[in-house]
Amino acid sequence: MKNFKKIFVIAIALFLTVGCACSVNKAKDAVKDYLNNYKNLDENVTTQLDDLVAKEDLTDSQKETYKDVLKRQYKDMKYEITDEVYDGDTATVTAKITVYDYYKVQKEVAEYLKDNREKFYKDGSYDEDSYIDYKLDTMKKYDKTVTYSIDFKVKKENGKWKVTDLSDTDIQKIHGIYDYTND
Questions:
Q1: Integer Cα distance of 136 and 114 in angstroms
Q2: Are 139 and 18 in contact (CB under 8 A)?
Q3: Which of 27, 28, 29, 89 counts the most CB atoms within 10 A of its CB?
Q4: What whole-number distance in Å separates Cα of residue 111 and Cα of residue 104?
């Protein structure tokens, strides 16, 4: 759980290795397919999610809750393609995505811990599992959203448009963990 951002970045990187070499005629269709793989909990997405969460130092129950939190983020994501610019066999497709604001909720939960550490005591000392349970439960119920703009780089390979590597920042935006406070 300490590597929350790291897991998201790795998940996307692994997903990109599988990629979406969809048989589409427009670059924006590749972006739609890419994002719909998340929304529809495509097998590649869920398999990689399972593998990554399994490596986390969490209880079995926490791992299941963590997966539920991430799946909810994927399924409830909304997006709109706002622009598409071609330059030969490459294109930039701009999409606005709306996701749960997990950045904000994690800050709120960390602040709550600072002010209420004693609420996470068990047998007279701080219990990390109690805090993680609280954090995951809060994230699972959180319903405030944030909207980001992402420029997807798309390349035509063998007659098919494919989304290429995303930056860490864009990956964080997809997962709602991007620190937008300095923008």
A1: 17
A2: no
A3: 27
A4: 11
Higher pLDDT, 9 or 156: 156
Residue 110 CB neighbour total at 10 angstroms: 11
Q: Looking at the predicted structure, is the pLDDT value of residue 53 above 70?
A: yes
pLDDT for 132-162, tens place per residue? 999 999 999 999 999 999 999 999 999 999 9
pTM: 0.83
Q: What is the H or E stretch that residue 53 is in?
A: helix 43-54
Residue 88: Cβ-neighbour burial (10 angstroms; 0-12, 13-18, 19+): exposed
Phi/psi for 56 (5° steps) reads -75, 150
Question: Cβ(102)–Cβ(177) under 8 Å?
Answer: yes
Distance CA 183, CA 179 (A): 8
CA pair distance 94, 98, nearest whole angstrom: 13
Q: How far apart are CA 29 and CA 116, in angstroms?
A: 48
Name residue 61's beta-bridge partners.
none
In order of 19, 52, 62, 131, the CA distances from 117 in angstroms are: 43, 29, 20, 9
Give the mean pLDDT of 33-40: 96
DSSP-based three-state secondary structure for 110 = helix
CA distance 183 to 173: 13
